[in-house]
Amino acid sequence: MSCPVLSGRCASISIWKTNDMKSGNLIVFDMDGVIVDVSGSYCEVLQKTAALFFRDARHADLLPDPLFERSDLAQIKHGGGWNNDWDLTHRVISLLLSRVDVPAIPDDMSWDIYRQVIADSDVTQLGHYLRETGTPLFHLHQHHQNGAHPFADRCYQNDIGAGNIIRQMFQEMYLGRELFETIYKTPARTCTGPGYIFQEDLLLPAPFIQKLAEENTLCIATGRPFTEAFFTLNRFGIHNFFSRMATLDDCLMAENWLAETESRQVSLSKPHPYMLNAIAADMGSLSSSRFYIGDMPDDMEAALRSDYAYTAVGCLLSAPGSDTLKQKLVDAGAHSVIESLQELESLIR
User: Fold this and answer.
1) For a tag site, which of 152, 156, 178, 344 has the least CB within 10 Å?
2) Which long-range contacts (CB under 8 A, 24 or more apart) does 162-166 make?
3) For 220, phi and psi rounded to 5 degrees?
4) What CA–CA distance (Å, rounded) separates 12 from 257?
5) What residue spans in the chain does CATH classification 3.40.50.1000 cover?
6) How far apart are CA 304 and CA 332, in angstroms?
7) Per-residue pLDDT for the chain (349 aa), expressed as one digit of tens each?
8) Running DSSP on this structure, what letter comes out for residue 37?
9) How far is CA 18 from CA 191, 218, 240, in A?
10) Element of type H or E holding 150
11) How does DSSP assign 167-231, residue by residue?
12) Rounded to two decimals, what is the model's pTM?
């Protein structure tokens, strides 16, 4: 049986019908690094989750603070293939564990087992490596193409509340205790205060988005779960300017459908064009042109691979003047790269 979700025809995308469909452009935005500045949230949380993971290891006092520089992490993320920050956190911890003396790892994983294993792990070698090596993360990334580590893998199985230590650490720190427990209905284990999600700010001012929405149809294709994406849009009072939103939840739903009906395992997250195909199919043919605006090479690849002729627009609002990232976006197929609101406005006229 063929899979209609791959072309978006049976997509169950996250939808609220707040705007009438317009005959202007269809403009689909990535969220993080385009609409929302996440430099003080996701980037910070990834660093701190890795540090928290190793906090109770033997000789943890030898580890630098921070464990690694954000510029080091950016070299991995900007290389493409790491659109999901949970997966990237797992990758980073796996790489760091390659320099750690880890004892035997039980088959099962729980918070008690994790704490026992990490308490018996010696991070002396890792501490020296991080202090003495330039761009240590990127160096490890280049020399460990597989990058797997059995302890990290065991701590990244199942879901939050069911043994996924890494994802739960990340989400608790990002959401904060109150919001985490409200969303996941499970007690927080590592975080007691507010989350880094509240440190986010808009890159695109609300009046600018409203102006775009008056003559164009605006949508979102994001790797965030729906609850987090809507919470942020609602917090800034801009959710009514967007007609459609495709999220990580939609990708996972379609992936599960494929696995159950066709026994196929496939990732539909970016750089796969699934979300862009689903939005364009749902919006019909009213739009004169389609644009996808993102800040990562994966976004450009998704636009180019779509069945619906999107113009791929690289966005450097969160990293103005970054020649390295600009070149990576161009290499990934960006039709243009914008660094200001004026450039964006001129492009879509």
Assistant:
1) 178
2) 163/108, 163/109, 163/110, 165/53, 165/109, 165/111, 165/114, 166/49, 166/53, 166/86, 166/89, 166/90, 166/93
3) -135, 135
4) 11
5) 4-37+200-347
6) 9
7) 344 444 443 444 565 544 455 558 999 999 999 999 998 999 899 999 999 999 999 999 999 999 999 999 988 988 877 888 999 999 999 999 999 999 999 888 999 999 999 999 999 999 999 999 999 999 999 988 777 899 999 999 999 999 999 999 999 999 999 999 999 999 999 999 999 999 999 999 999 999 999 999 999 999 999 999 999 999 999 999 999 999 999 999 999 999 999 999 999 999 999 999 999 998 876 667 999 999 999 999 999 999 999 999 999 998 877 888 999 999 999 999 999 999 999 988 7
8) E
9) 36, 11, 6
10) helix 150-154
11) HHHHHHHHHBHHHHHHHH-S--SS--SB-GGGG-EESS-HHHHHHHHHHSEEEEE-SS-HHHHHH
12) 0.90
Residue among 24, 25, 88, 35 at smallest CA distance from 294: 35
CATH topology for 4-37+200-347?
A: Rossmann fold (3.40.50)
Tokens representing residue 128 in the block: 């020296």
Quick one: tokens of 203? Answer: 């890159």
